[in-house]
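Hi R.,

Here's the chain you asked about this morning:
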Amino acid sequence: MVQPSPDALEAAFQQIEFSSPLPTSDDSQQSETIYNIIKGLPEASTYHRLLEQHPNLVALLADASNGEHSLFLPVNAAWEHEPGLDARVAEPADASVLSMHICPHFFNEAYLRSVTNVPTIYTPITCNGPQVFPVRLTEQGEEVGKSGRFTQPSIRAANGIIYPIDTVIPTPTPLLAVLQDRGNYSILLRAIRASRFEDDLAAERGKGGTLFAPSDQAFASLGPDALQFLEEDEEGKEYLRALLRLHFCPENTHYTNMIWPQNTMGPRRTSADKDMIYKGTLAKELPSALQKGGGAPKLAMKITRYMCLITMAVNSAPVVEQDIAGNDYVAQGINDVLLPGGAVGNGSQDVISKIKSALQFYI
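And here is the predicted structure, written out as tokens:
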């Protein structure tokens, strides 16, 4: 599959933007802090009530001297769609859900159109960087989380910006559970269990990583004989474990628009920063978990971007499902099975021999 050029992505972006003009912000309260503004918003009474159970978050949003934040504020109606969640959030020990709505940067409307994920202040010990949630620009405007929308114009504050939204952004679950819920990675999950690769992932938990996740379609393209060899043959299971290690890049949590830990140490974005155009193509290599003798085959990534429209490919295999985020790792879904320096390729002949030849050095 040929990946679109930056120019093609720019044309697509302009078409979307034509249907969804950049909204303006309400700056009538920008002398007030985020905390003081939401305290006076009737439609934010649930979030405010829950916030009061977490003095550290109150202090953060009430402080005009600690940089700027972006608050994606679930309105009262959003909580009504999540029965019982507000009771859990009210527990003083659990600030995770509220923290998932707070970004430690100033993201205005124009900048939001250049990103695909928003980093939050929620950083669990299970990963090597902050948790994120997706944003997508559509012809109907910005989409937040799975399907949320802005309910009114953003509100400028002395210490940031507020986006009222009609959804509650949940904290992610472990990646394998997220893939299970997706429904189209069942062979991959079965392979992870059969090959004991689940033990490898458990050992790396807390260090971060990216799993290039072959879909059921990808594994089915290997053919029944190859699948039987990999899943049922004792020799084949060793090759399967090596194959899965090749698809995992430890300690690099690679989203479409950010990488942990690389992007966790930079300066926080402020309202003084100028909006930029992000356009171009980037080629890079990520070391895989398939190692022998201190060396590891690298996966070749190509990223093409215009603002929030981003395509990725790994070993020339397009990423067809982006940024499947767990609380430990992120997955990028692909419709091919990778090999060192390439991929198996749909319709390949003698797949078992091809896999053995490519991986026997690592067995």
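One quick note: The chain has a mean pLDDT of 93.

Cheers,
M.
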